[in-house]
Amino acid sequence: MGMDGLERLRDPRFSWLLGLAVCLLVSLGLSFLNAGDNLSRKILDKQFDFLQQRVTHPIQNDVVIVGIDDESFSRFNEPFELWHPYLAGFLEAMRTANPGVVGIDIVLPERSYQFMLPHYEEGLVRELNALSAQTPVVLARKLDAGGRLRPMAGALLASVADVPASVTLCLDADGVFRRFDLNSCTVNAQGTSFAERIAARLGVEKPGVGIVDFSAGQKFDYIPFSHVLEWQGQADKKRLAAVFSGKVVLLGVVSARAEKIRVPVPMAVWAPMDKHVPEVLVQAQILRSMTGKGLIRELPLWGSASLALVAALLWLGRSGWIKLAIFAVFPFVIWLLSTWMLRNGIYLPLGAILLSGSFAFLTRLGFESVGQVHDRKGLRDIFGHNVNREVLSGVVSGKIDSAAGGERVRVCLLFARIKDFGRRVREADPQASVSLLNDYYSEMAIAVHQHQGTLDKFDGGDLMAFFGAPQALDCPERNALEAAQEMLLRQRAVNGRLQENGLPVVEIEVALHVGLVVVGHVGPAAHKEYTALGPEVDIVKALVGEARSAERPVVCSAEVAEAVRSAGGITELGERLVAGANLHVYGWLPPLLGRP
Predict the structure, then answer these.
(1) What CATH number belongs to 390-594?
(2) pLDDT at 449
(3) Domain segments of the chain as ranges
(4) Worst-scoring range by mean pLDDT, 259-268, 323-332, 363-372, 408-417?
(5) By the 8 A CB rule, do 251 and 103 touch?
(6) Backbone phi, psi, residue 91, to 5°
(7) Which of 33, 144, 313, 382 holds its CA 20 to 30 A away from the CA of 488?
(8) How far apart are CA 56 and CA 281, in angstroms?
(9) Is-above-0.70 flag for pTM?
């Protein structure tokens, strides 16, 4: 990157626009690359759980499950492949009950056993034919261990009008079933699923694809298979009709040996915390969705991408309590919106939206943090030698306003000058002049800083300081007067070192004046200085010339003298014309100077 590019990056407005553009591009990338899908799925599961527990979604003609449970397996001694008489009894019970549709979601015999048990399967085939003539029957085609569709005995296939339908379920990337879309894991599977066939018999011809509504209905319970056989054996037609008449009936395995599917929420009354449920329950929930409000449709990509762009606008606005509150409330508001949409059949994935908002908020926070570090470094560069550590800490932390943009403030100005410094420089060794100034300024800076003053500038033998900015003072005149006295005392220390080296001593003259000045950061971006501007500065510079004629080391204007009259040693010198202004001038000889 060239120098022009670096300069543009230093431009706050350009950096702000660049940051906004980055946040918007990231939000689009998150949306179109499906980033945050895992987060979206976890949120969706929580929403289903919330709706299932707190929002009633009644089913008008709910699915009835007849479950082959552990009790059934323990009651019948024959292998499951030879349950022909019991299955025939179930089908006979269904003929008695007259349900709307019967779905057989179990592994049916793959071959005929006529060669081994003559006439053994005739009862099952006869009852299946009889029930099919009265009620739509859909047989399930299960998968074997290799993922292939199991074969089915020809006599059973010929007994029903419909070709057996697959119970294949396509799982999401995390192994959970949420979405009904067989084309996502098979090829050209539209219309061939078990649930679709049953839905078609109920008048739902093309349910399409979408997310299964796991909030519809309550947890499933089942009618034990053995109980149905008992009711049929007792010819309890009234009970059979009351439970099954006109209903969708699914026969499936619910015992411990059943095939289990992971789902977003617990679905079984007998296992209220288990999200691994028998496959027949999942088929029943798919039917609930298809025959109820329909499968949940996902919001088009442009819709979720638009909301992600809105979330990226969290870049806007400075970080603070209000923005932090917005950031904290935003996920809750978008969650409520998404939950309401889900309740009404539209799925809004929140992952990319929440990630976009978080990225924008944290990026802006980082941007401001970097800016603050840069600003604090700049403040340290500007104020590092101008004020004492306590004031510098207050300026850098923001407790003391540094008036970066400039402000008008009342201060007490101090101007000090080394008498005849120009002549001394001409006559003295250059190294001695530089050494003198370094020693002198070090001592004078300590004097100013000890009394909360701000050093403005050094110029040869001249020193400028002011009191009352950036740190406000109760009585800046007193601070300035005490600093002037400290400077005169430290002058003695400087002179002592000069005498030790056989060099002539120095004398200083100090002027103090109060007035309104403009203070602020002045200079190029790479080298700004905190300085005071205005006519009062010219007055204090001119006022120092009155010290020599008054034979006083310190002179001041009337306002300073009035504020510190109790200090003692102040003498009125009369009215003088100073920098074009008439001033009452006072001289001061600090009492401490008379002490050894």
Answers:
(1) 3.30.70.1230
(2) 87
(3) 3-40+300-374, 60-291, 390-594
(4) 363-372
(5) yes
(6) -65, -35
(7) 382
(8) 19
(9) no
